[in-house]
Amino acid sequence: MERVLSRALGAADYADAFYERRVVRSFRLQEGRVHEAGLSVVSGIGIRVISGDRAGYAHTGDLSERALLETASVAALIAKDGAARVASIRIPAHPEQAVSVYGTTHSSLAAESATYVDLLARADIAARAYDPRIRSVNASISDELQDVVIATSDGRYVTDRRPLVTLAVQCVAQGTERGTGFCGDGGRSGLDVLLERSPEKLAREAARIACVNCDARETPAGVCEVVVGAGSGGVLLHEAVGHGLEGDFNRQGTSLYSGRMGERVASELVTIYDDGDVPCERGSISIDDEGTPGQHKVLVENGILRGYMHDRLNARLMGGTSTGSGRRQSFRVMPQPRMCNTYMPAGTSTFEEIVGSVKRGIFAASFAGGQVEISKGDFVFMLAEGYLIEDGKLTAPIRGASLIGNGPDVMNRVVMVGNDARFATRHYTCGKGGQYVPVGVGMPTVKLSSVTVGGSSVGS
Amino acid sequence: MEAELDLARSAVDVAVRAGAHEAEATFSVARRFSTEARDKEITKLEQSVSRNLSLRVFVSGAKATLATSDFEADSLAAFVREAVDAARYVAGDEFGGLPDLALVAPSDAGLGMYSGDVTTRKAASKIGDALELESIARAADARIVNSGGSRVLDTDATIVLANSNGFAGAYRASSALFATSPIAQDGANKLVGSYGTASRSYGTLEAVGAVAAKAAHRALGMIGARKPPTMRCAVIFDRDVAASVLGDIFAAINAANVSLGNSFLIGKIGERVGSELATIVDDGRLPHALGTSPFDAEGVPTGRNVVFERGVLRTFLYDTYYGRKLGAASTANAAGGGIGPNNFYLEPGPGTPQELIASTRRGILVMDTIGFATESVTGTYSRGARGYYIEDGEITHPVDEFTIAGNLVEMLAAIDAVASDLVFDQPIVAPTFRVAEMTVSGGA
Question: Rounded distance, CA B238 to CA B259, Å?
């Protein structure tokens, strides 16, 4: 490895190698029976060379020394016009094992196929039994174990073993129309976490949402007060603020938060953290994909911008240190600054106080996902479950609603924060630059004083 | 391609020896070059070859899949055996299994899928293209002050398919892409304009200057944007956004979704769903188009299928499994373990997008959307959007921070104008088209 990194480093500032072996087992159930089994194996090494703000990259699935040296040479092309200097790289004889923030990492490997199949069958039965309006149930389970080894030209040599389990249930119910409901659970642990939290509970929640949606009415379009539900409301933080605080966009000056450190960017009720070290949470990492430990980060504190999320490249160029945010989808791509588990801590209001304060508005109980354009900061969130609020009470369910706004503008409209902070029970995967990584989000119930609600019905 | 075919055949053999009744292996070798320029510098340079094997095995119609990048013989054999073993936990299925195929694979001759220039063009020239994209976009106007980068990317992929019935087929395909995202400063706001396009060859790719100019125009065009009022009005989808609407329609004609009750088009074959102008086709054999291939992921020869004929729904799109299940032949749409498009497109109309705008009394031209809220079950459609306000046939000002919403059934029925600007630069494409009325949610 020292020879490979020396070849890669050449005249550059920094080089690293990322080895990955990831095995994912999955089963999918539809129409009451197990429909498909899947097995996926990703194995290889990626070599990166950094020279100033330039990065060269190459990868190979062939782990022979010859192939690795060749891969290092290709990665090094980016820096070939740099000033040559003697590179002396020393790497410890054995990699250091990262301190784990995960649950069990070995039980899954020994699991029999029957264990997965049984979990799916239990979810299917529970969802169908929930309500006669349930017409179809689709359930899937995936169980992943990723081993990584990271070696860097500045002598870091670390290894990590990352488990990730996911159980997802989707139901379709027939009422006045068809409605869908989705629920997912899991985290960085073995299958035991799914058994503990009960597949039946998860399935009934998906069935409940489908039943709500099959009798939902069209969403009224326009501007109104919005109450965002605890848990998956954290998507709001992820999209409206989180992406804009990723180091690459801020170094390049392409984010609307660029150069605004220490300034007010949200209402003083808003505090946002991004933590890589929450035990067993979906977005947690003992170390990131550059070997930096996952950690607690304050992004916004009482409305003031406090920190960006950095990988090593952007930290070095901006004169800071990595926040353990360098993540990548696989050995075939370079790491980018990414979020882990983004959340807002609890405030003081109760759920009843918050809803009770709204004369006419929308309760966004949970989100299917969202998207942001980071330069101007405009975002959209799609509701998975929503209701009208009339005279301080939840009334009719609504379908097809979305919220649209601008990050800082909406975060300035946070006027109440609930005491019920929790992580989402849906599972989210974040996409950036074509790379997908698992993330967590969390939030207490929050009231926004006015937001544009995208719906299809117009009228008074 | 014999070495690649041998590897695919040997994986099939291992599966059959492990007890699979049928097996099919796809082996792909893809060389990829990618570079990014920002300002006057190259900031990223990536070159690699990816090798992937995907295997489908059937035991009494029960299916298991394996995708791997580890070809070390012992480890590959162990994973193949594990996949066959996992299939025993899957329910037996009378519709599962390989397609009935002729053993001679259809040829890729005449399909124009490969151009040698993605490999012969020197890296220095590709890097030069990226730098030029960046410099032209930045020089377009003093208000363009930054950029999200300019990219040049190409691929050269060989794909082979072998199955336990003796089928063996192979083809080679190339692609080249230019994309850039300049940023215009508008007071405190940063406005990105993105444009990118792809082709089978550098020789036929839209010129660097044109790509950069379009992107710059998109960024500058948004200066001074404001929220439109909440209203019902005509919505014109620019061709990139039009393609994404076609993507939502594809989900509803995907036979897997139809079979599982996840489509708003269930039971509507033979019915008039769209307007007279809605002719939507899936064609896997258009020369040089990016969705073209001689056969699909199961080896079924591609062809042309008219999905909507002047608004009338004629067929869903099937792979072998859902074809058997729903009583139809495969339309050669097997892709990546599911059902995917070949070249899925809306037939173009006679006029230019400018003429289409000129014929619009009041409406919004949508240039970008964000979000992905489409319920395939009901056809409910909602997106965040930005674009231009149109009054009396003229673009009056840019608009942003609003949503457009409707229902895909109603949108298909309300297509009242289709322009001529169809370009096959991705598998799902559409020309600019107009929907007579949708809901715009903006300000009061």
Answer: 32
Q: Which two tokens stand for residue B186?
A: 């508008």
Tell me the residue type at B183. I
> Please, are residues B164 and B24 in contact by the beta-carbon 8 Å criterion?
yes
Q: What is the CATH number of the domain that holds A155?
A: 3.30.2290.10
With both helix axes pointing from N to C terminus, report the angle between B123-139 and B208-221 in degrees, rounded to the nearest 10. Answer: 30
**Residue A422: count of CB within 10 angstroms of its CB:** 16
Question: Within a 13 Å sphere around the CA of B132, how many CA atoms are in the beta-carbon half?
Answer: 13
Burial class of B261 by CB neighbour count within 10 A (0 to 12, 13 to 18, 19+): middle
DSSP one-letter string for A257-286: TTT-TTSB-S-TT--EEEES-STT-TT--S
Residues of A in contact with B138 (CB under 8 A): none
Cα–Cα distance, A337 to A331 (Å, whole number): 16
Gap between the Cα atoms of B10 and B164, Å rounded: 10
Confidence of residue B396 (pLDDT cuts 50, 70, 90): very high
Q: Which CATH superfamily is domain B2-221 in?
A: PmbA/TldD superfamily (3.30.2290.10)
User: A459 in a domain, yes or no?
Assistant: no
Q: Which residues pair with B383 in a beta bridge?
A: B404
**Helix, strand, coil share of chain B (percent; to 5):** 25, 40, 35
Contacts of B232 in chain A (CB under 8 A): 458
Q: How confident is the model at residue B93 (pLDDT cuts 50, 70, 90)?
A: very high
Residue A333 within any structural domain of the chain:
yes
Which stretch of DSSP H or E encloses residue A191? none
Mutate to test the interface with A, among B45, B82, B410 (most CBs of A within 10 A): B45
A221 to chain B: which residues are within 8 Å by CB?
Answer: 230, 403, 405, 439-441
Q: For chain B, say whether A252 makes contact (Cβ under 8 Å).
A: yes
Instruction: Supply angle C-alpha A235, A236, A237, rounded to 5.
Output: 90
Q: Which domain holds residue A99?
A: 2-214
**Residue A292 to residues A43, A96, B250, Cα–Cα distance (Å):** 22, 12, 43
**From start to end of B142-276, where are the E strands?**
144-163, 168-186, 189-192, 195-199, 231-237
- How far apart CA A91 and CA B128 sit, in angstroms, is 37
Residue A460 inside a domain? The answer is no
Question: Distance from CA of residue B402 to its chain's centroid?
Answer: 25
**C-alpha to C-alpha distance for B361 and B340, rounded to whole angstroms:** 37
DSSP label at residue A104: -
- pLDDT above 90 for A315: yes
Task: Provide the shortest C-alpha distance from residue A383 to chain B (in Å).
Answer: 8
To the nearest 10°, report the CA torsion of A393, A399, A403, A404. -150
Taking each helix axis as running N to C, give the angle between helix B73-87 and helix B2-17, from 0 to 180 degrees, rounded to the nearest 10: 50
Residues B64-73: pLDDT tens digits?
999 999 998 8
- Using pLDDT thresholds of 50, 70 and 90, give the confidence band for residue A84: very low
Could you say which residues from 196 to 215 on chain B have a Cβ atom under 8 Å away from some Cβ of chain A?
none
- The answer to whether the CB of B160 falls within 8 A of the CB of B172 is no
Strand duo B41-59 + B22-38: pairing = antiparallel
Do A166 and A224 fall within a single domain?
A: no
- Digit-coded pLDDT (tens) for B141-167: 999 999 999 999 999 999 999 999 999
Residues of B in contact with A380 (CB under 8 A): 370-371, 373, 383-384, 403
Give the domain ranges of chain B: 2-221, 225-444
* Residue at token pair 């174990």: A145
Compute the CA torsion angle A350, A356, A359, A364 (nearest 10 deg): 50
Contacts of A282 (CB under 8 A, 6+ apart): A164, A186, A187, A188, A341, A427, A428, A438, A439, A440
Residue A17: enclosing H or E segment and its boundaries? strand A14-30
